[in-house]
Amino acid sequence: MITLFHYDRSTAAQRVRLGLEEKNIEWKSVVIDTALGDASQRPADFHKYNPKGLIPLLKDGDAAIPESTIILEYLEDAYQNYVKLRSVNPKEVAQMRLWMRKIEDGIHVASRTIGVCVVNRHFYQKTDKKQLADYYAKMRDGVRKSNDKINTEMGLESPLLPPAIKAFKKLFTDMDIQLQNSKWLAGDNYSLADISLVVYLTRLGSFQMSPLWSDLRALNNWFDKIQGRPAYQKAVIEWGDITAEKRKTEGDAAFEQVKKLWKQEK
Ligand SMILES: N[C@@H](CCC(=O)N[C@@H](CS)C(=O)NCC(=O)O)C(=O)O
Q: 9, 60, 183, 246: least surrounded by Cβ within 10 Å?
């Protein structure tokens, strides 16, 4: 049986759980939650399976696969007799992958920047100094480490925050334009593109940011439709978010500043 190493509120884990639940594949859960600055949650041999030390990681027999979007494509290839989340039309597949590419082309990093500036820095500032030093010593992604340092120290004044907000404004606007013309992001069929990107509406929404894109009607209708799916209920709502309360409080406190950045033209 498939084993997924993950934790509740991770966007990358949410998209894999969405894939598993949509396809109705049985899986076993192993929770590894280092995100509050606790590297000791990670099993000693974890880097052998994901050199970056991040979740999600999927194990299927003797295969160990990291990277959420690669995991999703793996599930399409390895579990062909299940519900399909990838079209057979090559043009739709290309569209689907172009949408998914945006995640690695900056959106995931932007999401972490917003997360650290608004919320995580408050957790890190309260974490035992030795524990936090160990967490960063074991973080192998240099960009993540240096971004975190700036974002933790500077919070809402971080120079990385305006471009991160701008990246989401562009993404959500582009998605809205697409969704005015097609039912789903890659065409007529619900696909990996939809489940890969919806998690960022959930994430930014948890910071109380959704009034910022209330004018994007097609995007909001799309989000409503996905939230109504049983798989979303299972993969996102039921797993929940242990930091939800803090996200809400800090998101409310940051709202005016974030709104100013969202409204900025440049
Ligand atoms: N590109 C990776 C990104 C994975 C990633 O960023 N994982 C985060 C959760 S979303 C993580 O493991 N965080 C643990 C930590 O920050 O300590 C993927 O798509 O799987």
A: 183
| Closest C-alpha to ligand 1, atom 12 | 54
- Asked if the 90-263 domain carries CATH number 1.10.760.10, the reply is no
Q: Give nearest CA residue, ligand 1 atom 2.
A: 67
Q: How far apart are CA 104 and CA 33, in angstroms?
A: 22
178 touches 81 (CB < 8 A): no
Domain-wise residue ranges, the chain: 2-78, 90-263
Ligand 1 centre to CA of 13 (Å) is 8
Question: What's the CA gap between 89 and 54, in Å, rounded?
Answer: 33
Q: What pTM, to 2 d.p., does this model score?
A: 0.97
C-alpha to C-alpha distance for 262 and 168, rounded to whole angstroms = 9
Residues with CB under 6 A from ligand 1: 10-12, 34-35, 54-56, 67-69, 108
Instruction: Note the pLDDT tens digit of each residue in 155-206.
Output: 999 999 999 999 999 999 999 999 999 999 999 999 999 999 999 999 999 9
If you measure from the C-alpha of residue 11 to the centroid of ligand 1, how many angstroms do you get, rounded to a whole number? 8
Residue appearing with tokens 């509740």: 8
Distance, CA of 151 to CA of 165 (rounded, Å): 14
- Domain 2-78 fold: Glutaredoxin (3.40.30)
